[in-house]
Amino acid sequence: MIERNIIDKIQYLLTKYPVVTITGTRQCGKSTLLRNGFPTMRYVSLEDPDLREFAIDDARGFLNNFGTPLIIDEAQYAPKLFSYIQTRIDSEGQTGMYILSGSHNFLLMESISQSLAGRTAILKMAPFSISELTHANLLPELNEWLFTGGFPRIYDKQINPVDFFPSYFQTYIERDVRLLRNINDLSHFVRFVKLCAARIGQLLNINALANECEVSVQTINSWLSVLETSYVIYLLKPYHNNFNKRLVKSPKLYFCDTGLAASLLGMENARQMDTHYLRGELFENMVIMEFIKQEYAQGREPNISFWRDSNQNEIDLLVERGLDLQAYEIKSSATMKTDYFKGLNKFAALAQLPKESLHVVYGGDVNYLTSFGDLISWKNIGLSK
Q: How is residue 141 annotated by DSSP?
């Protein structure tokens, strides 16, 4: 098993909370991590129809039978189980009793909010990151990485992304979308998701999406909520400080995995990435998701944004931790150019940032420390602080 960065955080939180809940993208490796990463805990999955029926019909007996510490995967299939877990942890007052996980994030979190609020730590998990694949000596070259993405099954079973993603997306529609929303015409929804893929890195324009999909704005908002809830897309919010300038207020749209986006865009191999009109946007998407994966692995909600004013001055990524603000420009070119820092320098003057807070992530292989700021190779995201 490829070691996952989040495992240390899970182990730590098990010493502080009676329950730790793992949520995140479908097929991002949650079950594999739980089966193999916690050998002292018993593992059960409610994907098994017999175990599911046992948990639904006799929740008390189910918990008595398996005891603690216990991992319950696909826990959302037995909502009544959560009330019995609450009673048990309140009675025993121990830490590290249960790990809960599930693929239907909305249903899982709904059950937790009703019964386990304040009693569980909640962690989000994503597909493989650059640092995880680097440590396993499995990181592809850049175009291959953008085309393939990070879903573990592709690497474990050496599946061609062309074969993996259509089945993955079909499963997502049949299992997740139908549970969350009653969508009568799935062809409209599929068209909507593909239109979202074609808008990676752009400001979200709900009216334009509604017009092209021939549905209402309310429907588009509902569908966006489905994609966000199931970790298919990520909406990057604009930075709140305007420095006395007019700012855009719309978020920017990204996908949680560039491999899925590339599939929805109709790419058939990594060679097509070199000349694709969205290669720069897919690279930007990948970099932003790497920062998000880092935050998830540390149990933090990403405090990230972008900045754009009415004069089209823009910073691709701002990362805030407390009072610290770091600014990043993202360039897919493999060539080092000091011009990359022009926009950062303008923003630094407004935000009063030192050069140590200015960074460019680019498509090259070597890090450089310049007099304008850091130039960081895409391969080193998450490997250097």
A: P
Q: For residue 12, give every residue at least 6 positions away whose Cβ sits within 8 Å of its Cβ, in sequence order, or none.
A: none
SS3 337: coil
Using the predicted structure, report yes or no on whether residue 179 has a pLDDT greater than 70: no
| Residues sharing a CB contact under 8 Å with residue 238, sequence separation 6 or more, in sequence order | 247, 248, 249, 250, 251, 252, 305, 306, 307, 308
Q: What is the pTM of this model?
A: 0.94
Q: What is the pLDDT of residues 156-173, one digit of tens each?
A: 999 999 999 999 998 887
Alpha-carbon distance of 151 to 165, in angstroms, equals 10
Q: What is the mean pLDDT of residues 269-275?
A: 96
* DSSP codes, 23-41: EESTTSSHHHHHHHH-TTS
- Identify how many contiguous H helices and E strands the chain contains and give both numbers: 17, 13
Residues 285-302, mean pLDDT to the nearest whole number: 97
Tokens 């890090």 correspond to 367
**CA separation for the pair 26, 35 (Å, rounded):** 16
